[in-house]
Amino acid sequence: MNSRKTLKKVSSAQFVHRWLMLLLAIPIFIWGLTGSYFVLMDIGFIRSDHIVIERADKIRASAVKYPIAKVYQSFPEARKITLTVINTQLIYQVKLTDQSLLIDAASGQQLAAISKSQAEQISQSFQHQQSISPTAQIQFIGLLNDKTPLEQLPSELAARHLPVWRVVFDDIGQSTLYISAQTGEVVTRRHEYWRLFDLFWKWHIMDYDDGEAIDNQLLFYTAIASFIAVFAGGLLVWQRRKRYS
Amino acid sequence: MKTQKIKRWLRFCHYWLGTIVGIQLLIWLGTGIYFNITPSEDLKGTHYYRSIAPLDLTAFSSHDLEPLSSILERFKPMEQVSTIVLINQPVYLLDEQVQRYQHDCQQQVLVDAYSGKEVLIDADLAESIALQSYTGAGEIKSHRQLSTSFKEWPKECNPLWQVSISDDLNTRIYINGINGRLVGHKNDHTDLADLMFKLHFMDYLHQGSFNNPFSWVFGLMMLLLSLSGVYWVIENLVLKRYRFKFE
To answer: Which residue spans traverse the membrane (chain A) (predicted)?
Structure first.
């Protein structure tokens, strides 16, 4: 008799909801908090779509004096060649299998890697109204390359982009541009709201190491248990309709 | 007593927030479990997908490349030109205004790098590009040119070619009508996955985004529901209500 009573008690919606929520209230709250952050913060702002170059220069056809065919002949293993303007200079970006380099499109000379002052100039072209504030100052600028110790490489930068200039502004979001030292392109960027988004994403999918595995066991069991606990809560809503109406 | 009043009010809130958010909360958890247990190739439709191979350098004759200076003169001023590969042929992609995302409205022109002639993505070319990306056993059933509001690509701004394949998954391959880029594959798996995403993101107005008024309101209500729940758990702990007795 007693065991039947106990069984009846533990299978009641009230018991299931109360006891499961002892463990699950915090994870469910974290889902609510992180999910609300995701939906309330515009994803375009988070991915800093507003941080764009103020005015991109157009290519003057007559300035392309060195033919692309010659670039291919010098670098037959090139996977992709892009003609573009960087800091008012017309250049070919040559992507090889494991690195990239720059060729002057007027003279055909191979250019040195992007210098600190060039990187600074490129980052300043991203400063204007609606983008990184024109009044923001560059707080830090430093080169990251394959000699940089692993623990000093920020996790927000993929190692395949190296070598890269890291340019940090002192604006409210600590906006950071990562400029490839080989091509002058902005390969990645971040600001504090994006970093928070990345952190919240790890919490949301309960992957506390690298934040990429949605298919982890912790998430699975927590979500299954939460489904049962919430379902029990739903039954309670019905059972207690008179108490709260 | 004042605290008694607050406690009663919190329970009232928890009850009614639970009533309103309950169903959506079960949807969030259910679809979340679905994402957790579904292989990523089902979510992304990559079952029969392969990325397009880079230029085959053995068949490439760089001597015959048309110089860019003469090509650029014929068009509006461009910001960028890059070499891409379409069906193993080198092609110049002229970009009037470089966009951040592939789904943004592209202002691009394709030019055959050997002949200097403009390349248009016609049905034949779209079909060939589609087949290059396809590893399954099916064959092309039909093709269709789509110009606006794509059910399967809500954010896409460019005209698309849809190439349908007769296979076990009803694969549809989408090609950008402006630059020939492979947009992606859709199939029976992604039909389910896209529905699940729509439910999880509360994207009931089909905007392709989770930044929508439904999510704002329900997200905040969910936050309050869970906060009042956390309070209730703490109250139960403080009042030592978590005691289990065998009766």
So the answer is: 20-40, 218-238
Q: What is the pTM of this model?
A: 0.89
Whether A127 and A170 share a structural domain: yes
State the Cα–Cα distance between residues A29 and B80, nearest whole angstrom: 48
- A143-168 residue pLDDT tens: 998 888 888 888 888 888 889 999 99
Is there a single domain that holds both residue A122 and residue A165? yes
- For residues A34 and A69, state if they share a domain: no
Burial of A71 by CB count in 10 Å (0-12 exposed, 13-18 middle, 19+ buried)? buried
Do A220 and A125 sit in the same domain of this protein?
no
Interface predicted TM-score of the whole assembly (ipTM), two decimals: 0.88
CA distance A84 to B96: 11
Q: In the predicted model, what is the mean pLDDT of residues A2-23?
A: 84
Taking CB atoms and an 8 Å limit, are B80 and A82 in contact across chains?
A: yes
Instruction: Compute the distance between CA of residue B100 and CA of residue B121 in angstroms, rounded to an integer.
Output: 22
User: How far apart are alpha carbons A28 and A143 in whole angstroms?
Assistant: 42
How far is CA A170 from each of CA A50, A129, B66, B89, rounded to the nearest angstrom?
Answer: 17, 16, 47, 47
Q: Which residues of B touch A61 (CB under 8 A)?
A: 68-73
- The reply to whether residue B70 touches residue A61, judged by beta carbons under 8 angstroms, is yes
Place of tokens 């989408």: B174
- B98 found inside a domain: yes
Domain assignment present for residue B68? The answer is: yes
Say if the Cβ atoms of A31 and B28 lie within 8 Å: yes
**Each residue of B114-164: pLDDT tens digit?**
998 999 999 999 999 999 999 989 899 999 888 777 788 888 889 999 999
In this prediction, residue A56 carries a pLDDT of 80
User: What is the tens place of the pLDDT at every residue in B53-110?
Assistant: 766 666 778 888 888 888 888 989 999 999 988 888 889 999 998 888 888 889 999 9
Whether B93 maps to a domain, the answer reads yes
Q: Are residues A59 and A179 in the same domain?
A: yes
Angle CA(A84)–CA(A88)–CA(A90) in degrees, nearest 5?
A: 40
Domain count, chain A: 2
| Mutate which: A3, A57, A72, vs B, most B CBs within 10 A | A72
CB contact under 8 A, A227 and B215: no
Instruction: Say what the pLDDT of residue A54 is.
Output: 76
Where residue B206 falls (left for φ over 0; alpha for ψ -120 to 50; beta otherwise) is left
Cα–Cα distance list, B203 to A28, A33, A241, B35, B156 (Å): 21, 19, 31, 16, 16
